[in-house]
């Protein structure tokens, strides 16, 4: 029986593409300029490919889809080294965090909910289920998103990149959630739109629920996820079947 659910944020609760793809296209030229590198189309496309973005499409197993800023910085630095360009990874991480946070938390940003998040969380809690967030996003950006949507208070737990927690699929956020509410691993479901969310669930003894509302297709989940849904709108029916 499921007693706790950890939700990914982007691609699961809010639209990934209108937020992060747009941000990546804005941030990359600015990042290149900050490092005194050419921000021409060729170099911009090269760095975007290092992030897992090509021809306006996001690789579901690429960095932008699920990795932390530290991991994205490492990927970009490795790619630039192949061109003979050496940058400090810590500085690149700081730049990416600042530039992306500025893009996705700006005053005019509009987050598009994939469903009525607040209602879903209230319905789940009405069934005695603890609800939490587990995202690769920074804590500041994640909380800013939830507060702007008016849903922050609906979450019993918010797990994000605070510079201390290890990112998914490491156990940190799963264990925090598990211990806070005295749950068994098998009582926790992880709902997310990437294979990384599935690994996060499976590595920690939880139930993996993949959703097709973000960057992944059914093929990306098949054989690994315990359940595959079109979106979290189908979650209530799934929980009823599982009971």
From TrEMBL:
The keyword Hydrolase applies. The keyword Heme does not apply. Pfam families: Hydrolase. Keywords: Hydrolase. It comes from the Bacteria. GO terms for molecular function: hydrolase activity. InterPro entries: HAD-like_hydrolase_sf, HAD-like_sf, HAD-SF_hydro_IA, HAD_sf. This is HAD family hydrolase.
């Amino acid at each position: 029986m499921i007693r706790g659910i950890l939700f990914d944020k982007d691609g699961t609760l809010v639209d990934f593409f209108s937020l992060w793809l747009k941000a990546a296209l804005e941030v990359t030229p600015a990042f290149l300029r900050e490092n005194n590198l050419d921000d021409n189309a060729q170099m911009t496309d090269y760095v975007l490919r290092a992030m897992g973005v090509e021809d306006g499409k996001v690789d579901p197993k690429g960095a932008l889809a699920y990795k932390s800023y530290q991991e994205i910085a490492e990927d970009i630095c490795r790619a630039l080294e192949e061109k003979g360009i050496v940058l400090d990874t810590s500085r690149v991480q700081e730049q990416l965090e600042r530039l992306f946070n500025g893009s996705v938390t700006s005053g005019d940003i509009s987050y598009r909910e994939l469903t009525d998040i607040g209602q879903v969380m209230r319905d789940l809690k009405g069934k005695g289920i603890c609800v939490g967030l587990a995202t690769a996003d920074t804590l500041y950006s994640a909380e800013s998103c939830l507060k702007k949507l008016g849903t922050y208070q609906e979450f019993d737990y918010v797990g994000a990149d605070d510079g201390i927690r290890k990112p998914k699929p490491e156990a940190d956020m799963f264990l925090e959630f598990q211990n806070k509410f005295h749950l068994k691993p098998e009582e926790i479901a992880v709902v997310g739109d990437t294979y990384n969310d599935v690994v996060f669930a499976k590595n920690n003894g939880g139930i993996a629920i993949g959703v097709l509302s973000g960057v992944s297709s059914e093929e990306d989940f098949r054989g690994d996820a315990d359940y595959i849904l079109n979106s979290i709108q189908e979650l209530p029916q799934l929980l009823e079947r599982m009971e």
